[in-house]
Fold:
Amino acid sequence: MTRAIYPGSFDPPTFGHLDVVARAAKCFDEVIVAIVVNPQKRGPMFTLDERVEMLRASLAGMPNVRVEHFRGLLADYLKAAGADVIVKGLRVVSDFESEMSAAMMNRSLSNVDTLFLMADQRYSFVSSSLVKEVFFLGGDVTSLVPEPALRLMTAKRGSGDTRA
Ligand code: PNS
Structure:
């Protein structure tokens, strides 16, 4: 029984994330998509409940995938969840620099290795932050985010409420 953790902010989830989950679900018995509650980067646009809901709805067809969340150190969560491996997506070479030090740090803290999966090349330019910027400036992101995320983003744009 191999359990992989795919951690991230998922603010919002994109087709790139879903593609990585689908690839991981083929490699491991169980994949836990783990949403970090308070990402270090900056305040999320979507609440934790919204991110859980968008991911659960988008991943409903994958029986060996579940959505959880954690606060604090990923290394501590890995131990609590009994994880065998961390899964991360790599898009372009520039992702590698920060991901390599994160992988080393997580391994030194938890002795859990990180395996990198490349999403389909159609999504190599897709990030949650770019999707948000384009969408809230009126751009079309239909081909980049799953329907549950698009629906919530559309509601937020309509109400002018773009803060979690
Ligand atoms: O989707 P993101 O924002 O790129 O994901 C980053 C994430 C959540 C994987 C990373 O920030 C993380 O692991 N945060 C938890 C806090 C932690 O353990 N930090 C040290 C990581 S080496």
